């Protein structure tokens, strides 16, 4: 305390050591619930999953160290290798379609006009429904006997017999992507709207007075200025699609003939149907590494 | 005019599934009665869902408000490290963290526990919630807190009596996101709960479709969809402004 008395007034007022130390302690106290949650429920499991991947870890019973057997057997897991290919295909198609639909919607509702709020809400509303509930909704809506879609298509003369919505691999993928577009287009539209609204009106006005047409304005102004927002949407869409689970577990149940089994579904099956937590942990670690690598790559290239 | 025709057609496409599901569930009101008797009874599952959501919202608000205050107004060793560790939650796949959590919660005596599930949801909400709350506290004028401190309040009294009121919009946003996530989530309860009596609504209703014996009752299924969806739709429409604002600050800075 005597030391501070000799200091200049300003330094003494902003940082008296005793008070400063107590603010340090107080800061820690306020942050301690966060630290406990992050430490116990995030960092500890992260360490545990690596340790589990190095052990034979049955659902019940004693774990025994067996590294690197869990990693070595990934190469012999045909279901997982198929799932990787399927998930990549699903991710590519979903991301392209979702970006296109979301961008279209965002451009349609971009300007403030009478009634535009209603349309924004209408497009977003499916996003408020839980994904599992949305999948069950489509499960009923596309059912051949119960759902309204087949009778409507037949009444319009578009189809002549019930469509196997989840009965063939291609149709199952198509139906799932329709479900995902319905559920997530509004969400992605909202992301893009934040980007569109950040573009100053003057830029458009200047382009228009220079005689640019709508297409030129879109390709020369809107798209380049929207790039950071598009990048964010792309990263979210790719990450979300690579981790797809609910839609395939609930809606197609991986079928027909395991043709729509995603990577996370294999992890789930290994853990809770084959009771092999160690193998599931190894797959999880590989997935984590791939995702972190991919995200780093995308952020560097897109931003 | 052409734009409104396009918009209306699209709105019909987007709203049709919701309207159909509501209509299909109500076509035979007995759907709801059958659902009430399904499994352990829809009352049990709804109660579980409400309990988990209430615990998640309360837990997220308490942890993120205290944490947001700490990150906005205090300097302490390890501050940046803790913030980065919290944001890293966003980078890790759901499955990667839930497999070990299944084991870890067993060690802690929280296997098949709604409290354990709610704690996991709080952890998943934390990156967004902490980020929102830190920004909200940072946006408050420092004079607000200093006046209270000069009046002899401790920092906690200043926090509880004055600052918390000033960040109420952010609290509503954080609470809304926490509710929607915990009420709707399917994967975490699927893994962490293994006894029918502790299932939340999504897991219970999905299990209607996965029965090996007997035909699926599609009307009852849509009644289940409505029980899950209607609270979210109502809450979203009422609190839309808060949702969009939280979304904007998250999306623009994320």
TrEMBL record, chain A:
Task: Report the membrane topology from the UniProt record.
Answer: Multi-pass membrane protein
Locate the ABC transmembrane type-1 domain: which residues? 84-298
Membrane-crossing residues? 28-52, 90-109, 121-142, 171-193, 230-251, 271-297
Q: Which GO terms describe its biological process?
A: transmembrane transport
InterPro entries given for it?
Answer: MetI-like, MetI-like_sf, UgpAE/MalFG_permease
Alphabetized UniProt keyword annotations: Cell membrane, Membrane, Transmembrane, Transmembrane helix, Transport
A cellular component term from Gene Ontology for this protein is: plasma membrane
- Locations listed in the record: Cell membrane
Matching Gene3D superfamilies, A to Z?
MetI-like
State the family named in the UniProt similarity comment for this chain.
Answer: Belongs to the binding-protein-dependent transport system permease family.
What is the official name of this protein in its record?
A: Carbohydrate ABC transporter membrane protein 1, CUT1 family
Q: Which organism is it from?
A: Nonomuraea pusilla
Q: What is the lineage of its organism?
A: Bacteria, Bacillati, Actinomycetota, Actinomycetes, Streptosporangiales
UniProtKB/TrEMBL annotation, chain B:
Does the keyword Lipid biosynthesis belong to this entry? no
Q: Name one GO biological process term.
A: transmembrane transport
Q: Please give the PROSITE patterns that the UniProt record associates with this protein.
A: ABC_TM1 (PS50928)
Question: Which Pfam families does this one have?
Answer: BPD_transp_1 (PF00528)
**Keywords in alphabetical order:** Cell membrane, Membrane, Transmembrane, Transmembrane helix, Transport
Could you name the Gene Ontology cellular component terms for this entry?
plasma membrane
Segments spanning the bilayer are 45-69, 81-108, 114-137, 218-239
**Which family does the UniProt entry place this protein in?**
Belongs to the binding-protein-dependent transport system permease family.
Name recorded for this polypeptide: Carbohydrate ABC transporter membrane protein 2, CUT1 family (TC 3.A.1.1.-)
Organism of origin: Nonomuraea pusilla
């Amino acid at each position: 305390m005597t030391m501070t008395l000799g200091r200049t007034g300003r330094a003494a007022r902003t940082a008296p050591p005793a008070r400063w130390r107590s603010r340090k302690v107080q800061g820690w106290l306020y942050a301690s619930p966060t630290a406990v949650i992050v430490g116990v429920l995030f960092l500890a499991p992260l360490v545990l999953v690596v340790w589990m991947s190095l052990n034979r870890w049955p659902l019940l019973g004693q774990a025994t160290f067996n590294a690197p057997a869990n990693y070595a057997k990934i190469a012999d897991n045909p279901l997982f290798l198929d799932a990787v290919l399927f998930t990549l295909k699903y991710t590519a198609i979903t991301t392209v379609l979702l970006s296109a639909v979301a961008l279209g919607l965002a451009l349609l509702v971009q300007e403030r006009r009478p009634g535009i709020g209603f349309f924004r809400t209408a497009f977003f509303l499916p996003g408020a429904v839980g994904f599992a509930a949305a999948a069950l909704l489509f499960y009923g809506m596309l059912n051949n006997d119960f759902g309204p879609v087949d009778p409507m298509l037949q009444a319009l003369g578009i189809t002549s017999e019930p469509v196997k919505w989840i009965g063939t691999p291609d149709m199952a993928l198509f139906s799932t992507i329709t479900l995902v577009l319905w559920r997530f287009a509004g969400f992605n539209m909202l992301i893009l709207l934040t980007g569109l609204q950040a573009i100053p009106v003057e830029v458009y006005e200047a382009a228009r007075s220079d005689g640019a047409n709508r297409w030129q304005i879109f390709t020369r102004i809107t798209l380049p200025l929207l790039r950071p927002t598009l990048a964010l949407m792309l990263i979210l869409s790719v990450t979300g699609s690579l981790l797809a689970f609910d839609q395939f577990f609930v809606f197609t149940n991986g079928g027909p003939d395991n043709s729509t089994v995603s990577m996370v579904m294999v992890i789930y099956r290994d853990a809770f149907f084959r009771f092999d937590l160690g193998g599931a942990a190894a797959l999880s670690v590989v997935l984590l590494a791939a995702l972190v690598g991919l995200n780093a790559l995308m952020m560097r290239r897109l931003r | 005019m052409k734009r409104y025709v396009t918009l209306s057609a699209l709105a019909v496409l987007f709203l049709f599934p919701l309207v159909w599901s509501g209509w299909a569930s109500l076509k035979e009101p007995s759907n709801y009665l059958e659902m009430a008797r399904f499994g352990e009874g829809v009352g049990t599952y709804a109660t579980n869902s409400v309990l988990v959501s209430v615990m998640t919202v309360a837990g997220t608000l308490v942890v993120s408000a205290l944490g947001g205050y700490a990150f906005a107004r205090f300097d302490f060793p390890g501050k940046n490290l803790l913030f980065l560790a919290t944001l890293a939650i966003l980078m890790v796949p759901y499955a990667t963290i839930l497999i070990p959590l299944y084991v870890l919660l067993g060690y802690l005596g929280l296997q098949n526990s709604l409290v354990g599930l709610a704690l996991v949801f709080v952890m998943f909400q934390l990156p967004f919630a902490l980020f929102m709350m830190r920004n909200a506290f940072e946006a408050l004028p420092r004079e607000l807190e200093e006046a209270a401190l000069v009046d002899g309040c401790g920092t906690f009294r200043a926090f509880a009596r004055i600052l918390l009121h000033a960040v109420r919009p952010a609290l509503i946003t954080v609470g809304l996101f926490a509710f929607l996530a915990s009420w709707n989530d399917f994967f975490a309860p699927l893994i962490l709960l293994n006894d029918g009596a502790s299932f939340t609504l999504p897991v219970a209703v999905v299990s209607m479709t996965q029965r090996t014996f007997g035909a699926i009752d599609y009307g009852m299924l849509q009644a289940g969809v409505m029980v899950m969806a209607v609270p979210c739709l109502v809450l979203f429409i009422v609190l839309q402004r808060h949702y969009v604002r939280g979304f904007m600050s998250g999306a623009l800075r994320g």
